[in-house]
Amino acid sequence: MQTNFSLAQLADPHVAESEKILRKCVHCGFCTATCPTYVTLGNELDSPRGRIYLIKDMLENGRPADKEIVTHIDRCLSCLACMTTCPSGVNYMHLVDHARAHIQETYRRPLLDRLTRAMLAFVLPYPTRFRAALRLAKLGKPFIGLFEKVPALKPLGAMLKLAPASIPKTSPMASPGLHAGQGTKKGRVAILTGCAQSVLDPAINETTISLLTRLGVEVVVPPGEGCCGALVHHMGREQAALASARQNVDAWTRAIEQSGLDAIVITASGCGTTIKDYGFMLRLDPAYADKAARVSALAKDITEYLAGLDLPEPVRKPRTIVAYHSACSMQHGQKITRQPKELLAKAGFIVREPREGHLCCGSAGTYNILQSEISAELRDRKVRNIEATGAAIVATGNIGCITQIASAAKMPVVHTIKLLDWAYGGPKPEGILEESLVAAE
Ligand code: SF4
Ligand code: SF4
């Protein structure tokens, strides 16, 4: 694509990066076919190619964002299916991240939208605040219908709908400390305790630590870790995202320098995509660029890490039919497609892949709150495809997808690690009936 940026504009490294990305696009439109918002809404401006044109126009003319561009960029899920499809290697992720930061700087949203976004940024990345908000949400549940009737209050209604009926207890394993591996030492890793996941389902990281230590891997929870920054990053709040990134880089750098790390294990693929991008996000900060690149190189999804271990024979051979839902951040963001399915199959599960596996389930960070109608359409489409597999359980590697799919599916939805842990001798995952785990011959 031809671009017309002035030399003065290109002196801004963010603009220079976006110009490089724009020049790679050859307008072929292949990406439109796999874009969930184009598939759902049928509008070229809600396709990757349409958004690329809008972003180019805004940046080239040095214009503040307007209502039209904000509407179409807000509808983008950042699922990155377009990056998997694009034959020209267009880095849509970095382009839309730049556009979102530009929108945040130059566009004044309506008051309720501003308040909702400020509240999400204030609450979600902090487990204590998030836990308190979930308690409050219980009081608001009877008013869901009322909120859903007023367009500006729909996000509040969506939030209340997604809030779980009960909140699990805080896990002691989320506290900084060391979990020694059993038997011959196979490795040493840090684990990201995270934010929303540690409140909604602390058992995911507990199970991960339990399985890894049984396999001989030492697991450290370094002091100072926090939210990865993805939630605010996708809202264009660049400074907040970079502050989270720096905080984690500092925490993991101390752990690397103290006793070394083989990997930084992440159990939420949405976080994994962002942490693997820290090197890029902090490239312009001389004090952090190298450290952030080192952290990104060490970041691994738990299934990526387990696939590199010499696993023993599983203790149980379940033969249960499992539908594997590949989160967008897993398959498009990190290009991890093989490992989770192979691990489940090796552990004795019969793995089925739902149709249209490339399409997002509509979770996408805060998307199911801020764009609840498109999100619900995508969720229902995803659940129909999952249920058509005839599986007894859904496995996936991202807490957002678990919450989203579980809100409409009839079968249990669990993190992949819980099924693997069970097959390798761990306890039965909570919330799954015994008959869901028995052999399906
Ligand atoms: S990130 Fe997803 S929703 Fe956004 S343009 Fe690409 S395919 Fe479409
Ligand atoms: S597939 Fe790639 S090159 Fe083609 S229009 Fe989409 S982004 Fe541009």
UniProtKB/TrEMBL annotation:
Enzymatic reactions: glycolate + A = glyoxylate + AH2; (R)-lactate + A = pyruvate + AH2
Top-level class of the enzyme under EC nomenclature: oxidoreductase
Cofactor note: Binds 2 [4Fe-4S] clusters.
Keywords linked to the UniProt accession: 4Fe-4S, Electron transport, Iron, Iron-sulfur, Metal-binding, Repeat, Transport
Database matches in Gene3D superfamilies: Alpha-helical ferredoxin
Cofactor: [4Fe-4S] cluster
PANTHER family (UniProt xref): GLYCOLATE OXIDASE IRON-SULFUR SUBUNIT
Protein name from the UniProt record: Glycolate oxidase iron-sulfur subunit
Organism for this UniProt entry: Mesorhizobium kowhaii
